[in-house]
Amino acid sequence: MEFNEKQIDILLAAERLFATKGFDGASVRDIAQEANVNVAMINYYFGSKDKLLETFFEWRVPDFMINVDELSLVGNALDKVDVLVDRYVKSMNSHRKLYRVIAIESTLKQRMLTSDAFKKLKIHNLEVITSIINSGIAEGVFKAGNDPILIHSMMMGTFMNFQMNQVFLQDQLGIADDDGYGQYIETTLTEFIQKTIKALLTYEK
């Protein structure tokens, strides 16, 4: 889906406001003011605030699709897990505003979680994770019986905990600023998730 410059300005403004005020707290007038456009332009391009939210997520979804072509170049299943987690966390960390929107909306009215774009994203990523697990079983390095839904949920849940509790965790970790916190997520937290997933997949029950 292609968007012109004004549409992107509106989508970025909506992202900022949805992340801070939530969908219900951000009015179309607020978004128009933030994007420096008039309300009529938002209605012309998107029709309604609900449609704007749906379009916003469709616009962002490609950034979160696991890259199958990149993973196909990685030699073995253990290395695929490392690459998968590294790319996933970096993608999520670079779009932290979006994940604030997801957290708020999923808690309240499930708007995003029932959208077609969100379902396609989840199905695609689960299929990729399932493929990695199956290839590891075939290689003899992963044990059978691991649910890809639980693996994906652990990865997402760990990141979301760091996302939603940033002020507290940043203080506890002694990290001075937002950039340092992002760096911690992309290094220490990423390594922890990689080790945890590989431990779960190789654990002999």
UniProtKB/TrEMBL annotation:
<dbReference type="InterPro" id="IPR036271">
    <property type="entry name" value="Tet_transcr_reg_TetR-rel_C_sf"/>
</dbReference>
<feature type="domain" description="HTH tetR-type">
    <location>
        <begin position="4"/>
        <end position="64"/>
    </location>
</feature>
<keyword id="KW-0238">DNA-binding</keyword>
<dbReference type="InterPro" id="IPR001647">
    <property type="entry name" value="HTH_TetR"/>
</dbReference>
<dbReference type="InterPro" id="IPR023772">
    <property type="entry name" value="DNA-bd_HTH_TetR-type_CS"/>
</dbReference>
<dbReference type="InterPro" id="IPR050109">
    <property type="entry name" value="HTH-type_TetR-like_transc_reg"/>
</dbReference>
<dbReference type="Pfam" id="PF00440">
    <property type="entry name" value="TetR_N"/>
</dbReference>
<dbReference type="InterPro" id="IPR009057">
    <property type="entry name" value="Homeodomain-like_sf"/>
</dbReference>
<feature type="DNA-binding region" description="H-T-H motif">
    <location>
        <begin position="27"/>
        <end position="46"/>
    </location>
</feature>
<dbReference type="Pfam" id="PF17938">
    <property type="entry name" value="TetR_C_29"/>
</dbReference>
<dbReference type="InterPro" id="IPR041474">
    <property type="entry name" value="NicS_C"/>
</dbReference>
<protein>
    <submittedName>
        <fullName>TetR family transcriptional regulator</fullName>
    </submittedName>
</protein>
<dbReference type="GO" id="GO:0003677">
    <property type="term" value="F:DNA binding"/>
</dbReference>
